[in-house]
Input
Amino acid sequence: MLSEELKASLEKKISLAEHPRELVVDVMLELQDHYGFLSDEALEEAAVLLGMTPLEMEELATFYTFIFREPVGKYVIHVCDSIICWMDGYESIRDHLSQKLGIKMGETTSDGLFTLLPVCCIGYCDRSPAILINREVYGPLTIEKLNEILEALRKEAG
Amino acid sequence: MYPQVLFQNRKPDRIASLEEYRASGGYAALADVLKNFSYKDVRTMMLDAMLLGRGGAAFPAGRKVMTVADDAPYPRYIICNADEMEPGTFKDRVLIHADPHMLIEGMIIEGYSARAEKGVIFIRPEYESAARILDREIEKARAEDYLGNNILNSGYNFDIVVHRSGGRYICGEVTAQMNALQGKRPNPKQPPPYATEKGLWGQPTVIQNVETLVCIPHIIRNGPEWFRNLALTETSAGTKVFCVSGKINRPGCYELPMGIRLSEIIETHAGGMREGAQFKACLPGGASTAFLTAEFYDIEMDFETLKKAGHRLGTGAIMVFDHKTCLVEATLNLTEFFARESCGWCTPCREGFPYMRDLLWRIEHGKGREEFVSTLKQMCRHLWNSYCAFAPGGVAPIESLLTYFKDEVYAHIREKKCPFKSE
Output
């Protein structure tokens, strides 16, 4: 269920917009942050808020890279696999993450902490190989740096 | 060292503040325009400056805004395309992080030239830090009376909002971007109507890339002739922010005169090839351009020269490959990108890229057959029949691989393995 507070703040935002639909990505992202992913329930709530049908919402939710229709970990790691990162060692970064976390691309660790996903060029080719963790960039990476980052995140999560 | 125009206030570790931008002459152009120029004067200056769209298409910026008819309805929109997602391209991110007010001033003047009062910056989610910077600096510009109603007491109204995307490559395409902004599935839409006639919410809309917009205050401040003279070649104008990456020593963004030689960019500015690496080819302007071979190593990098050579400057993202990099595998990687990012709206693109990726995968992994080459060529031609420019751009690396590096392709097929891999 959506908290009254979040619902009210979204409704306010929508009422101020000239065209409510222009906020659809913002609304989806906020609901996703609230639920951890865009659940069926969240999708329907978003549709009601914006006066759209759930089907229209689904069409958008499944289109965008950063909207998750399935549960994801607390930390979503997007590994850039486009041309420059590929040239600069993306494969060893990917393999190391897989091995260290014990999951394949597209999977989430059993403790619910990490999800591993591939992503297209993130625009940090001057810092390759690079990854995003919850949309924040890390790079240029080495195996040692990667270990430090994972360690810090584990600590942060308690 | 060449003149630094767009990067004049760039600092290694932080953005230039509003005060710093103003101290360098920032917002003087806006004050001048609002006081002394008609919207038509601004259009003419952009045209005279030969300012070409820096997002890849190189359409004359002045001509674009001139297609907004005098009696076109209001409200009119300016969209700043900051959805930079062409692989290898990161100049818009660097420009926003260097001097956000240059973009804001550029947008306001562009808005004035179109007699628009609404501005939208469409930005990719990977650039959240840039989006936050813009949110904050737009607020400051408002407080200083550069945005909002009756700007600097001129009677002109203009304001800007930042729109965050959910993230997909096709959203960089202008018609898809307008669909995205309207909360629709971001499919491209073929004109007519053109955006400047019926764009966002059915209203006249001018879309420009970040790098195009930041040029505008400087054209106003120093004049079109000055801008043209920044370039080293007759047929080009201004500076260009080249993003250089790959097998060179100093990957990064470099502001250099339009028309500078590729060899100079690589050797002098990007620190030369990495140790033990020899230049084999580069993609001169993102993943949607063809491989530029060593034969073109000294080419003058501007839109016109590359076009004459059968190439495209695109976004000016130079990705350098060395003699040890397998270009079949590189092309496989690029094709994977297009297969994943195809919006799926039209059949040739949606079906064609995965098919070609599969053929390239087989060639790379020693399972290729000679007839794959002609099939790939035929598929590339089919993809030219796609609905938008995505697919013709996406097949450029494949077409050029089959033209300039066919020996490498056939070596994979003949030896039943990748000649670049030892095992």
Notes: The interface with chain B takes residues 19-26, 28-29, 50, 52, 59-60, 63-67, 81-84, 86-87, 120-126, 128, 132, 135-137 of chain A (CB under 8 Å). Chain A has a mean pLDDT of 96. The beta strands of chain A are 75-80, 114-119, 131-133, 136-138. Helices of chain A lie at 4-16, 24-35, 40-50, 54-61, 83-87, 90-101, 143-157.
